[in-house]
Amino acid sequence: MATEIPMMSETWWLLLGIVRNAGALLAQERMYEWRWETHPMWWWGWGMGMMAMMFLFWVVFIVGLVVAIRWLLGKSKEAKTDSALEILRQRYARGEINKDEFETKKKDLGG
To answer: What span, in angstroms and rounded, lies between the C-alpha atoms of 9 and 47?
Structure first.
């Protein structure tokens, strides 16, 4: 039993030393400072390809958003033709009514 106590104390001292040294090691600067040109993503052109794909994604996204908004806004601005006025124009074009009748009925329809 007497031999267990010194071993236990040695174990605690060892763990305490590891924790204390780990903090010192973490506080040190990195041995090698990464730069953009040395980052692994740039090797074999992957970095440029990924940048191009991200740029392409945003271009497609923004263009799609603009097209969708213009489509939605244009949908509400479509010229809503008055069917009665359109029928009147067709009858006038076919010669079923004369110009005076056309003008009179057009005024009545508000067009």
So the answer is: 52
